Amino acid sequence: xxxxxxxxxxxxxxxxxxxxxxxxxxxxxxxxxxxxxxxxxxxxxxxxxxxxxxxxxxxxxxxxxxxxxxxxxxxxxxxxxxxxxxxxxxxxxxxxxxxxxxxxxxxxxxxxxxxxxxxxxxxxxxxxxxxxxxxxxxxxxxxxxxxxxxxxxxxxxxxxxxxxxxxxxxxxxxxxxxxxxxxxxxxxxxxxxxxxxxxxxxxxxxxxxxxxxxxxxxxxxxxxxxxxxxxxxxxxxxxxxxxxxxxxxxxxxxxxxxxxxxxxxxxxxxxxxxxxxxxxxxxxxxxxxxxxxxxxxxxxxxxxxxxxxxxxxxxxxxxxxxxxxxxxxxxxxxxxxxxxxxxxxxxxxxxxxxxxxxxxxxxx
Length: 364
Ligand code: NAD
Ligand code: ZN
Prior knowledge:
- By secondary structure, this protein is of the alpha/beta class.
- The protein folds into 2 domains: 11-185, Rossmann fold; 190-363, Dehydroquinate synthase-like, alpha domain.
- It has 13 helices and 9 strands.
- The strands form 2 sheets. It has a 6-stranded parallel sheet, covered by helices on one side. Strands 5-8-7 form a 3-stranded mixed sheet.
- A hairpin with a 4-residue loop joins strand 7 (158-160) and strand 8 (165-169).
- Helix 7 crosses helix 10 (323-334).
- The radius of gyration is 20 Å and the shape is globular.
- It starts with 10 loop residues before the first strand and ends with a helix.
């Protein structure tokens, strides 16, 4: 048996208001007059405030030639978008001291990928896969403003490329620093907060019910699940404690899948996202709604949370698709071999046939 030896985030700061320490955190990583680039979710462009009431953009510790770039996350990150951003920075500055991503999972992934592409030749599409990145990127820090994806701790950055939706999975991908300040997630819209929070819940169910499970994954997965339950099942209203707990759930859920894998909901939702552009959080929810045969208890609890939190989960999104379109989704989904193996075991190909998967897509 060969065990994975995985690289983790180097520095973590957690706490309400910890964002205020960003200037001192970044200071040792400034290289001469090369700027720090703050890649900020476009939600904050018009002065949206964080939990302390001040606009986030006024709190960014800009020095010298530092630059704020607003990340357009209308669509999930694409390799073309990453390449364009990296080129823009190389053309303007030659090199930069670091890339600081502030936003949801999409912005965090963009920041990781742009950092890597500052020091690796070619296109980010060349590095979609496992361990293809050869050089460390520039210094990178991640500051989540939505909780659930685990992108703050993972060794991947999920990108849609010309031929596939796949991450740049590598030991160079994890952040050098993350700043977990639950205040920053205070104003997230109720539906979005739920969809992204459910990404974490689903990571836990898929990890804990998976065949790859070990005590490391289980320890983190159980804690994350407990926190999700406190937030979405036990509590009767959203408060600051909910943000505190969900941010730690996201971290622990990410740690859980780092040593195991996700499962059926993710494998199926990747197909939706590739063909229809369905976003990760909501896509997972749309699929989870129909996964009783695979995760009976998890799905029952998921439905309870949907009802309690008064959330709409779309249905009928695959109505009217052609055979060719179903085939595209099936191909993308069945291509996620480790996910299926984790979910259904080594003989997964005998269990999840194309016909069975087609029937599942038709229900969504
Ligand atoms: P997101 O980053 O796509 O953002 C969703 C929406 O919320 C956007 O409109 C954004 O502007 C807005 N938003 C962000 N923060 C906000 C705030 N504080 N208040 C109000 N609005 C806010 O959503 P997400 O669910 O966090 O991330 C999904 C992305 O994460 C996908 O691209 C997915 O592929 C990726 N992902 C990556 C990993 C990984 O390990 N790298 C894991 C899971 C998902
Ligand atoms: Zn996910």
